[in-house]
Design a protein that fits this description.
The protein has about 425 residues and is of the alpha+beta class. It is built from 5 helices and 27 strands.
C-alpha cells in the first residue's frame, strides 16, 4: 500500500471513530464526571440557581381565566399560599376600577361590590414570598349575561312592617321549568315557628305563606340562595340575598255589601265601623279574602284601563285625583275615598264599578273623613274580607290573594 492510500485509510478510520465517540457521548451512557456527564451537571446547577431566584408564592385567581358564564356573587377572588398579596387590581373592560378588600393576613382578596352581569373583568395580582421574591398572576373572565340568568322580584321590602296577610311573593323574569331546584334555593321562616309553604301560580310566580295569618309581632326571613341554580335550560340564578320583614298588629277588615258597612277588627275585636258603597248590581265586587298590596294618597282611575268603556271607546269614568286608594287586586279593585258621591250614598246604595268606596273630600287633605281614617290605619299586607256581593270569589293569583285557597290546595302547588 502506498503512503497516500495509507493516509486516506487512517483518515477514514479516524472519521468513523470520531462518529462513534460523538454517538456515545450523546447517548448519556457514560457517568464519568470527566466525560459526558459534565454537561448535565452544569445544567442541573443552572436549574437549581434559577429555582432559588423564583418566588415560592402561589397565586390563585377565580374564576378561571377565560370563563364566560361567571357568577356575579362572590365568584371573583384572589388567594395566595406561601406568600402575601402585595397588589391586586380588578378592572372592567372599559378600564373602570373595581374596589376590593384585602384580608387582614394578606392572603386573600375579594371585590367590595357585587359584579355586573354580562361584563368582562380583568384581574392582576402580585405577591411576595418569605424571601421577598415577587410572583405575578393575571386572569380575565366574563359574568353571566341577562339572557342566561334569572332574577326574582320579591315583596315585601326588606325591613318593612306589614299586615298579617302579607305573603312573600316572587316574580321571576324568566319562565322557570326547574321549579323544584329554584324552590329549594328559597327559604321562608318565621320567628313564630309557623310552618311556611310555597305555591307556584305559574312558571314565573311563586308565593309563600303559613296556613293561618302571620302571628302579630313576628319577624319573617326570606333567604334567596339562587346563585348558580339552573332555573331552565341555559338559564341560571344570580341572587344571593337575605331579607327580613316584620308583622304588625293583627288587623282584618270585613266588608259586607248587603249591610253596606265595613267593620275593622284588631285581634278579633271591632275597633271601628264605616259605611261603604260597594259594586253596583251590574258591576259587583269580588268576594273573598284580599290583601292590600299598594297605597296611594291620590291616584288616577280610568275605566278604559279595566274594560269600562263608552261607545266611543273612552272610559266610562276618568278621575284623576281619587283620594286614599288602596289596591286589592291586580285587575283594578280598590278600597278608596269617594268625594263625588253624595254623603247619603254610603251605607245605603252600592253604586261603584266594583270598588269599595268610602266618604272622602277632594284633595285627600281632610283627616276627619272615614276614608282618611282607614288609610291612616292601614298597612300594606292587611286583610280585607269582602262578603255578600253576589259575585264570584276572587282568583287567588289576582293580587296577593292566595288565602282563598285552603291549606291542602296551597301545598299542592309546591314543587318540593
Amino acid at each position: 500500500m502506498t503512503d497516500s492510500k495509507r493516509r486516506k485509510g487512517l483518515l477514514a478510520a479516524s472519521a468513523l471513530l470520531g462518529g462513534v465517540l460523538v454517538l456515545t457521548a450523546c447517548s448519556g451512557g457514560d457517568d464519568d464526571a470527566s466525560g459526558s456527564g459534565s454537561g448535565d451537571s452544569s445544567q442541573a446547577q443552572s436549574d437549581a440557581a434559577a429555582a432559588k431566584k423564583s418566588s415560592e408564592a402561589l397565586i390563585k385567581i377565580t374564576p378561571k381565566d377565560g370563563s364566560d358564564n361567571a357568577s356575579i356573587n362572590n365568584s371573583a377572588a384572589v388567594t395566595v399560599t406561601k406568600g402575601k398579596l402585595t397588589a391586586v387590581t380588578m378592572t372592567t373592560q372599559d378600564g373602570k376600577t373595581v374596589p376590593g378588600q384585602l384580608s387582614a393576613d394578606k392572603t386573600s382578596w375579594k371585590p367590595g361590590t357585587q359584579l355586573e352581569r354580562s361584563t368582562t373583568y380583568k384581574l392582576a395580582a402580585e405577591a411576595k414570598d418569605s424571601e421577598g421574591r415577587i410572583a405575578h398572576e393575571n386572569a380575565s373572565f366574563t359574568t353571566v349575561s341577562p339572557a342566561n340568568s334569572f332574577i326574582g322580584t320579591f315583596t315585601p321590602d326588606d325591613g318593612s312592617t306589614v299586615g298579617v296577610g302579607m305573603p312573600v311573593s316572587i316574580n321571576f323574569d324568566k319562565a322557570i321549568s326547574n321549579k323544584a331546584a329554584v324552590q329549594k334555593g328559597i327559604t321562608v321562616t318565621s320567628s313564630s315557628g309557623q310552618e311556611v309553604a310555597c305555591h307556584w301560580f305559574n312558571a314565573n310566580r311563586m308565593d309563600c305563606r303559613p296556613e293561618e295569618y302571620w302571628k302579630e309581632g313576628s319577624t319573617v326571613t326570606l333567604k334567596l340562595s339562587l346563585d348558580g341554580v339552573q332555573g331552565a335550560s341555559g338559564v341560571y340564578g344570580v341572587q344571593q340575598k337575605t331579607v327580613t320583614f316584620h308583622i304588625g298588629r293583627n288587623q282584618v277588615t270585613y266588608v259586607d255589601a248587603q249591610t253596606k258597612q265595613m267593620k275593622i277588627t284588631q285581634d278579633g275585636k271591632v275597633v271601628k265601623t264605616i259605611p261603604i258603597s260597594a259594586g253596583s248590581p251590574d258591576n259587583k265586587t269580588y268576594e273573598g279574602q284580599m290583601v292590600i298590596s299598594e297605597k296611594f294618597k291620590q291616584t288616577r282611575m280610568n275605566g278604559a284601563t279595566v274594560g269600562f268603556t263608552d261607545d266611543d271607546g273612552k272610559g266610562e269614568y276618568d278621575i284623576k285625583d281619587v283620594p286614599h286608594a288602596m289596591r286589592l287586586t291586580t285587575s283594578g279593585t280598590f278600597i278608596h275615598g269617594n268625594y263625588w258621591g253624595a254623603p247619603s250614598v254610603f251605607g245605603n246604595v252600592n253604586t261603584s264599578h266594583g270598588c269599595v268606596g268610602l266618604q272622602d273630600k277632594k284633595g285627600a287633605n281632610d283627616a276627619g273623613t272615614p276614608a282618611a281614617w282607614f288609610y291612616d290605619h292601614t298597612l300594606i299586607g292587611d286583610v280585607v274580607v269582602v262578603q255578600h256581593t253576589g259575585d264570584k270569589t276572587v282568583s287567588p293569583d289576582n293580587g296577593l290573594n292566595g288565602w282563598n285557597l285552603d291549606w291542602a290546595q296551597w301545598k299542592a302547588g309546591s314543587a318540593v
